[in-house]
Structures are given as structure tokens and as C-alpha cells.
Specification:
By secondary structure, this protein is an alpha/beta fold. It has two domains: 59 residues, Orthogonal Bundle (DNA polymerase, domain 1); 282 residues, Aldolase class I (TIM Barrel), CATH 3.20.20. A ten-stranded mixed sheet has the order 3-4-5-6-9-10-11-12-13-14, with helices on one face. It has a two-stranded parallel sheet with strand order 1-2. A two-stranded antiparallel ribbon has the order 7-8. Bound molecules: iron/sulfur cluster. The site of iron/sulfur cluster (SF4) has 12 residues, from loops.
Length: 355
């Protein structure tokens, strides 16, 4: 796929089907040309215009003049005993991002990064240690999935679920993330069912409302991590911009408009947010909201002072939520023998490079 790229050439992997139809029409072509291209790219995995035999030679040359294909390259790969694969991918400009594959009983879940670094600076997060350099393009996010699909094809498997939960705040890169999830959800594209795609935000209220109005059936997860503003402000700078009340009001709007259940992510940090009083307060806050809580045992990050809650505490917290009528699960842990925390591999590489 390497070739000389002139500045005006565009990576064709970054177009949703409707965007590509518009592009084709702008060349005087019929919209179905876009569907043919999708078929070649995503079904037949052909990344060379000259081989697209049902397109005329002259238009193939036009496509080759104006577009190109580019996938990220694998810079580092870590394989865990449980089948988890963590990749540090390198983009065209040298930027590096992490992508992780986790194997659940129900399918292969990829955790996609949406930005290079993150400016949200959550205190418990390795990704936030390196500030945002730029948002990823939709083509780069599609590339994360295609590279993982390529690895999985050796086992006759493919990515079946996507969570946009890696490095970056998706709603801080709203348009590109939205185009990406449309390509992911397109039957002729990456062919992932809407209910198998989740976008996770740390709580950008305007983004949640905008997302509610998109008319998508894609899941929404909220990184809540605290039952009250006082604790949330200690670990998430975004909580200084929006109170939990404002956040939950946007979540209720989303549920009303989209008619979908929401997931609240809650990282269990020892002696910070893991007491039974916290569980009671959380249950009171979430009562009546169509949702469930996903408790996440904290993955220690050496640069951070926090510790994970012990197993008994997590179990008691979970039982207390359930007894108060809040649906709750404890997230399974993956890749404990590799750099398990989100962003850890990139931080390890980037900080090593600076020394
Ligand atoms: S938890 Fe998410 S939003 Fe917060 S710093 Fe990490 S990547 Fe950014």
C-alpha cells in the first residue's frame, strides 16, 4: 500500500457510505459506485484501484489520482496468555496510538482510541498522562479495526464488537468519531451491528445531547466513577465544568430521545469511591434512570498514587447496588500479564523515547 502521496490525495477509508456516494456524484458517477468501492475494500479487502474490475479503467485512474489507501502499521505488539492483543499502532505522520482486542464468550471486542493523547487529564488514567496532540481521523480509526481484523483472519475470526473507549475523549473529536461509527455499522462496511458498538464519554454534556439527536442505535457509556461532585472533582477535571446533576440531566435527555439504556462506568479505587456509603449515594442518584453500572477494578499505573479496591470490597459494593435495585456487573479483567491499563504501552514507549 506504499506509494507517493500527493497532498491533495485523500484516504478513501475515511468516508461513510453516504459521504462516498456524494463524492462519486461529484465526478458525474452514479451513487452505486460508492457501494462497489465498499464491496472491494471491506468485503474483498482489495486496496488497489487498478484491480477493481467492475469499474472502468479511466475512472479507476481518476480514483488513483485523487485517493489512496493507508493503514496504520504495527509498531509494537503485546500478546497476553488470555488471548488479549495490545497494539501500539503508528499512523502516517508517526503518531502512535493503542488498540486492544479482548476476547469475551460473546465475541471479539476491540477498544479503539479516538485521539493521540487526551486533554481530559483524568487522575487515574495512563492515557491522560500524555496530552492531546490531535484527534484521529475517521480513516485512522477504521484502520485500527482493519489491522486487528487482519491479525484475526489468521484464526478465521473477525472483530465483532467495538468500544470507543481507548485513548481520547470521543466527543472532543465528535465529527470524526461519528463518521467512524457509521462506517463500522454499515453492512457493506465493517458490518458491526449498532448494538455491538459503544461510544464512551467522560461526560461532555453538549456532546451527549448532540449524540442523542443523531438517531443512531449505538450504545452510550458514561465514565462516572464517583457518586458525588466532591469525589468526582478529585479525579476528573471535567467534573469542574459539569456537575453530576447536569451530566445526569443530559443522560436522561439521551434516554428519552434515543430510547436506549446507558452504561455507567465506575472505576473502583481503594478508600476513595468504594465505601458502602458511596454505593448508597450512587444508587440514590441513579434510581429511575434506565441504566446499569459496570464496576471496573482499577488497573494500577505507576505514575499514579491510587490503589485498586480489594475483591471483597468490590463484591460488597456490587451487592449493595443490586440490593438497592441498580443493575450492576464487575468487568472481567484482561491482559493482566501485559500493560493492562489503557494508555500504558504508549506512555511506556513515549517516555522512554524522551529520555
Ligand atoms: S479516562 Fe478517557 S477521558 Fe479521561 S484522560 Fe483517560 S482517555 Fe482521557
Amino acid at each position: 500500500m506504499s506509494e507517493t502521496i500527493t497532498p491533495k490525495k485523500k484516504n478513501i477509508l475515511g468516508y461513510s457510505l453516504s459521504q462516498l456516494e456524494e463524492e462519486m456524484v461529484s465526478y458525474g458517477q452514479k451513487p452505486f459506485r460508492a457501494r462497489q468501492l465498499y464491496e472491494w475494500i471491506y468485503v474483498k479487502k482489495v486496496y488497489d484501484f487498478s484491480l477493481m474490475s467492475d469499474i472502468s479503467k479511466s475512472f479507476r485512474e481518476t480514483l488513483d489520482r485523487d485517493y489512496y489507501f493507508s493503514l496504520p502499521s504495527i509498531f509494537k505488539e503485546q500478546d497476553a496468555k488470555d488471548g488479549t492483543i495490545k497494539l501500539l499502532l503508528e499512523m502516517e505522520d508517526g503518531a502512535k496510538v493503542e488498540t486492544v482486542l479482548m476476547r469475551y464468550d460473546y465475541g471479539n471486542v476491540i477498544c479503539v482510541s479516538s485521539e493521540v493523547g487526551c486533554s481530559m487529564a483524568c487522575e487515574f488514567c495512563a492515557s491522560g498522562l500524555l496530552r492531546k496532540e490531535r484527534g484521529l481521523t475517521s480513516a485512522e480509526m477504521v484502520g485500527e479495526v482493519l489491522v486487528m481484523n487482519d491479525l484475526l483472519s489468521k484464526e478465521m475470526e473477525r472483530v465483532t464488537h467495538i468500544v470507543v473507549m481507548g485513548t481520547g475523549e470521543p466527543f472532543d473529536n465528535y465529527d470524526n468519531v461519528l463518521t467512524f461509527v457509521k462506517i463500522a455499522n454499515e453492512q457493506r462496511g465493517l458490518a458491526i451491528g449498532a448494538r455491538h458498538i459503544t461510544v464512551s464519554t467522560c461526560g461532555l454534556v453538549e456532546g451527549i445531547k448532540k449524540y442523542a439527536n443523531e438517531g443512531l442505535q449505538i450504545n452510550l457509556a458514561i465514565s462516572l466513577h464517583a457518586p458525588n461532585d466532591e469525589i468526582r472533582r478529585k479525579i476528573m477535571p471535567i467534573a469542574r465544568r459539569y456537575s453530576i446533576d447536569e451530566l445526569l440531566s443530559a443522560v436522561k435527555y439521551y434516554i428519552e430521545v434515543a430510547g436506549r439504556r446507558v452504561t455507567f462506568e465506575y472505576i473502583m479505587i481503594k478508600d476513595l469511591n468504594d465505601t458502602l456509603e458511596c454505593a448508597d449515594e450512587l444508587a440514590s442518584r441513579l434510581r429511575g434512570i434506565l441504566s446499569y453500572v459496570n464496576l471496573i477494578p482499577f488497573n494500577p499505573v505507576k505514575e499514579k498514587p491510587f490503589e485498586r479496591s480489594d475483591k471483597e470490597t468490590i463484591k460488597a459494593f456490587s451487592m449493595r447496588l443490586n440490593s438497592r435495585g441498580i443493575n450492576c456487573t464487575v468487568r472481567k479483567e484482561f491482559g493482566t500479564d501485559i500493560d493492562a491499563a489503557c494508555g500504558q504501552l504508549r506512555v511506556k514507549y513515549q517516555t522512554k523515547k524522551k529520555k
